[in-house]
């Protein structure tokens, strides 16, 4: 069943995930590296003995005994080191040696990933940076962005070789809850309301997770954070639209303090987005420049943390903007599980598609035509359109909602496509009632079978459409 669901999702997403024996080779050095910096190419073995490649970037003529930091990417398969070049350059100019590496693609995809595995990759990178000339091995820490905010604490909890932890756009909530909120928040920012956001979107995420197509959905960061003993610097942009910036910091602080760690400092940057880059439009567009003072904060705080002077329980900066609260995304009950949903969809397709197929077979065999029932045609066509169109549209929405793409033309706070699907669903239910009355008066056994199959499909369709919000305002 999981393979079937994965195949369907892969077709809908139009994705292809490459697999490599090693990470793809990087360029001789990061492109666009300023002349005041140097770059040393390195390679190391991550989890499963996978070869990973990266660059160690330092200021030219940097003194010995300098601190170092390993950068851990956010979500994405095989993300190249160049994506974090702005951070690497900025931190190197603050006196750090920065190791940034190409992220793995083996064992990592849209449907598969392991945070502990990524943490092992990061630990291997830390070991490599600790051995670099001029780097003080006792002053090497780890920096994690977004998904890296779940990975970096795992690595820090596993090894005392890590001297400090920096988290940017990190999340203290479960990944499934965070992602469902991010897409819903993106839709609401685009002006969407109603059952599409309140019912259909979170339900689809629950079913996807139940089908094994959302990796690490219920990872709980709190127990991991409680094991982190190193100083922690948390950074969020005020306009973070991917991590709930108001809810996350208090949860993260509570988890650290539960473990007895009060050596944390949280900073919010005005005019900044999820990655603490400047944003001119409230987080919709990311500019290449880091928020003013971000790199300087990292340089200063690392100096304090590695000299035993890390601030305690410090929170500074403007209040973050979070328009809506996150919401629970619990595991599905048996009746709404991925296998049951898949079976229901197949039954609907058979029930609604059987009516025109049977008519076509009669025509091919040149059997006497049966007087068509208009309501039955509406049930057949409407049911197929609502079922297939509804799922296709929902998948489109979750793939674009978090990117703040408006899901088609709008009528008030409802996408016209969703309104049309809702109208079709309502017509299908009404036509089912009419068809049921005609089924009772059917003159032949064949007609009773054809109409009965349609009515059965319509009976299943009604609660199915309610579950997915097609029959709700």
UniProtKB/TrEMBL annotation:
Xref: Pfam families: Peptidase_S9
Gene Ontology molecular function, alphabetical: carboxylic ester hydrolase activity; serine-type endopeptidase activity
Domain Peptidase S9 prolyl oligopeptidase catalytic: 119-276
Residue spans crossing the bilayer: 342-361, 373-396, 416-439, 451-470
GO biological process, one term: proteolysis
Keyword Transmembrane: yes
Highest taxon of the lineage: Bacteria
UniProt KW keywords: Hydrolase, Membrane, Signal, Transmembrane, Transmembrane helix
Signal peptide location: 1-21
Classification via PROSITE patterns: PRO_ENDOPEP_SER (PS00708)
PANTHER family the UniProt entry points to: ESTERASE ESTD (PTHR43265)
Protein name: Pimeloyl-ACP methyl ester carboxylesterase
């Amino acid at each position: 069943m999981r393979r079937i669901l994965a195949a369907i999702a892969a077709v809908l997403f139009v994705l292809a995930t490459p697999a490599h024996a090693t990470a793809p080779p990087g360029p001789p050095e990061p492109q666009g590296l300023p002349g005041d910096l140097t770059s040393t190419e390195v390679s190391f073995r991550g989890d499963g003995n996978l070869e990973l490649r990266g660059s160690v970037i330092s200021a030219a003529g940097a003194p010995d005994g300098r601190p170092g930091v390993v950068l851990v990417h956010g979500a994405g398969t095989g993300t190249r080191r160049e994506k974090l070049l702005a951070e690497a350059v900025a931190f190197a100019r603050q006196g750090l040696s920065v190791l940034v590496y190409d992220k793995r693609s083996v064992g990592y995809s849209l449907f598969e990933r392991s945070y502990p595995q990524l943490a092992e990759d990061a630990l291997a990178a830390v070991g490599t940076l600790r051995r670099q000339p001029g780097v003080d091995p006792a002053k090497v820490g780890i920096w994690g962005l977004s998904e890296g905010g779940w990975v970096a604490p795992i690595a820090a909890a596993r090894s005392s070789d890590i001297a400090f932890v920096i988290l940017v756009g990190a999340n203290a909530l479960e990944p499934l809850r965070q992602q469902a909120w991010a897409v819903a928040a993106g839709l609401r920012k685009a002006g969407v309301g109603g059952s599409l956001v309140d019912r259909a979107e979170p339900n689809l995420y629950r079913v996807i997770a139940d089908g094994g197509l959302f990796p690490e959905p219920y990872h709980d960061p709190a127990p991991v954070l409680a094991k982190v003993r190193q100083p922690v610097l948390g950074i969020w942009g005020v306009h973070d639209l991917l991590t709930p910036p108001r809810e996350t910091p208090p949860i993260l602080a509570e988890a650290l303090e539960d473990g007895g760690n009060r050596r944390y400092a949280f900073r919010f940057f005005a005019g900044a987005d999820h990655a603490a880059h400047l944003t001119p439009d409230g987080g919709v567009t990311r500019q290449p420049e880091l928020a003013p003072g971000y790199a300087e904060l990292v340089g200063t705080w690392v100096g304090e943390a590695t000299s035993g002077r890390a601030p305690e329980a410090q929170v500074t900066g403007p209040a973050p903007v979070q328009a809506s609260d996150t919401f629970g995304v619990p595991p599905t009950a048996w009746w709404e599980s991925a296998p049951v949903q898949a079976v229901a969809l197949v039954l609907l397709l058979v029930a609604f598609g059987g009516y025109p197929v049977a008519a076509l077979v009669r025509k091919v065999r040149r059997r006497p035509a049966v007087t068509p029932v208009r309501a039955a045609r509406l049930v057949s066509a409407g049911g197929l359109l609502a079922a297939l169109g509804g799922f296709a549209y929902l998948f489109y929405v979750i793939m674009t909602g978090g990117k703040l793409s408006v899901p088609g033309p709008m009528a008030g706070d409802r996408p016209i496509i969703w309104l049309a699907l809702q109208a079709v669903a309502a017509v299908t239910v009404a036509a089912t009632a009419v068809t049921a009355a005609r089924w009772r008066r059917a003159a032949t056994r064949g007609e009773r079978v054809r109409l009965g199959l349609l009515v059965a499909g319509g009976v299943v369709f009604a609660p199915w459409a309610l579950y997915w919000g097609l029959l709700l305002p």
